[in-house]
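Trying the structure run again after the queue cleared.
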Amino acid sequence: MRLIPISAGHFHCDGGALFGVIPKLLWNKVYPSDENNFTKLALRCLLIENGDRKILVETGIGNHYSEKHQKNNGYISGNQLEDSLLENGCSAEEITDVFLTHLHWDHATGAVKNENGQLRLLFPNATHWCSKTQWEHSKISNARERAAYHPEVLNFLFYSGKLQLVENEGELFPNIEVRFYHGHTPGQMIPFINFREKTIVYTSDLVPTTANIPLLWMAAYDLDPLKTMEEKEHFLKEAAEKNYILFFEHDFYTECASVENSEKGFNLKHRFRISEI
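Done. Tokens:
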């Protein structure tokens, strides 16, 4: 097995949204914002070469949004995802599986490309995977979250016949099991990867950045913050006890980290790159 970070670019969000009720005086010391209160976020995908499979976890934003939308979100549309794959010796056609933790715009819409108004799958030979719970939720989501979904893109993906809906936790691929988390959005599907006798967890929006490791440092984007807190506490306790490696999709400054459980709660233990494992 090989694990290769793949970049789909970057974007930004309001620091208050990223850290919820935590005062800026505290979070700005560990995850800085600019003069407009924007914090930089990565779109860090993960390529897993696992036997005959080439599995891409997440696809970034893609090219479906207006210039105004891109400017407001600090995103520049382009071929970052394809270019990063090619730089690492993999073409889009070689991807066998696309793993979508959930279907929000910054995680899933890059799976489909808009070419002069015509949609096509960026990974035509891949089976795309997301949880059944998340797919069904995306159709009935409330007004607060609805803007995070792009129905035209998601419906195109579904009716392509290339989307498989995962109903149960457990092993999805050899050495890769999935668990469901529901606080951020119902049916967020997190991969736990058995790699060189270690467990690598692609944290997605369960723990967006290293600065979100402390239990109460939760994003305002979470639909059910109390559920997030409960899920996060259980996960971080296990991660600290078993020395899991957290791989961050959105942390602009940190690729991987370990955590510890101290008298003051959960904290960052070590930062490193996946190539150092």
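The chain has a mean pLDDT of 97. Worth checking whether this holds up in the mutant runs.
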